[in-house]
Design goal:
alpha+beta, Butyryl-CoA Dehydrogenase, subunit A, domain 2, 3 domains, 56% helix
């Protein structure tokens, strides 16, 4: 596959990189971490001023009508700055409603999600029982589950929409490694639940959006690790010369670059496959999620080592990237799970 951005996509990439560089500063991210994990001013600008929350959603509900390539561009730029935003909810729960919600559910919730008035959460792999419009059970490790206005609960082949303020819904926030994406356990005690009209389509859309969002964020984060390390290598002097001039240091940077370029190919292969409804879509998505997560984690670890002692302090931004990388590795399926899915898919085709 030969892939290059169109002029419009290149313009979107330049715009979002500038937006996040100016607004998603380390100071603001750390302030958000000390509160509920969301930079509210950044989220408002992201949704209302920039209109980025509607990328990948239909114009009928306030979206831009663009595809997953454009969404990946935005997620990559956000990941490079470790932006404290609930983008994952848009990519999962938002796409689930758009693909499998009823007309009433789409009409009520999608405009609120696009405008930023509401925050959505995807409760994946929940352990629940459903009867007569009521849900009992729990969902663990739900991103932004304690502050979401609405949840899409996924269990086996079913999915339900639950309003967070409904009686019987209780969310307990956790102290997590990546405080820019806080997790929660949400319990349901006879909570009112609205079944989605087409749960199969909703689940498929949410999984594709979630895996691609995390893969693109990981790509952006890995590139940020390399860029910041190269900058440091030019500034730091040892034995009368910049440390970036030493051969061993250059080799580590080259290894990081190779990982990142492969990750970039994986992300945009997956995004194109989703937009084109390709037969390769599932393999591409699984490959992007596991490869990009591992590449980010490697680059984040290398960044800490190549910065030396300074990067071992919490005040250094290397830790924001490292913790986000570790979080992405385990979220929505770890690398072992995704590699197993790739193997099963390929073996099924061969059979």
């Amino acid at each position: 596959m030969e892939f290059a951005f169109t002029e419009e996509q290149a313009m979107i990439a330049d715009t979002v990189r500038g937006f996040f560089a100016e607004n998603a500063t380390s100071e603001r991210t750390r302030d958000a971490m000390a509160q509920d994990g969301i930079d509210r001013a950044l989220w408002s600008a992201f949704c209302a001023a920039m209109g980025l929350s509607g990328i990948g959603l239909s114009e009928e509900y306030g979206g831009s009508g663009l595809g997953m390539v454009e969404f990946a561009i935005v997620a990559e730029a956000a990941g490079a700055r470790v932006a404290a935003l609930p983008m994952l909810g848009l990519a999962t729960a938002g796409r689930a409603i758009a693909a499998g919600g009823s007309a009433e559910q789409r009409g009520e919730w999608l405009p609120q999600l696009v405008s930023g008035e509401a925050i959505a959460a995807w409760a994946d792999g929940a352990t629940v029982c459903y009867a007569e419009g009521r849900l009992k059970g729990e969902a663990r490790f739900v991103p932004h589950g304690a502050i979401a206005n609405m949840l899409i609960v996924h269990a086996a082949d079913d999915a339900w929409l639950i309003r967070a303020d409904s009686p019987g819904v209780c969310a307990a926030a956790h102290t997590t490694m990546d405080q820019t994406r806080p997790l929660a356990t949400v319990t349901f005690d006879d909570a009112a639940a609205e079944p989605l009209a087409d749960p199969a389509s909703a689940i498929a859309a949410a999984q594709a959006g979630g895996w691609l969002c995390l893969a693109a964020e990981a790509l952006g984060g890995a590139q940020a690790c390399l860029d910041r390390t190269v900058e440091y290598a030019r500034e730091r002097v040892q034995f009368g010369r910049p440390i970036g001039s030493f051969q061993a240091y250059k080799h580590r940077l080259a290894d990081m670059m190779i990982e990142i370029e492969q990750a970039r190919s994986a992300v945009y292969w997956a995004a194109c496959a989703v937009d084109e409804e390709s037969d390769e879509e599932l393999v591409a998505l699984h490959a992007a999620k596991c490869f990009c997560a591992d590449a980010f984690f490697k680059c984040a670890g290398d960044m800490i080592q190549l910065h030396g002692g300074i990067a071992f302090t919490w005040e250094h931004d290397a830790h924001l990237l490292f913790k986000r990388a570790r979080s992405i590795q385990s979220m929505l399926g770890d690398g072992e799970y995704h590699r197993e899915q790739i193997a099963r898919n390929l073996l099924d085709e061969a059979a």
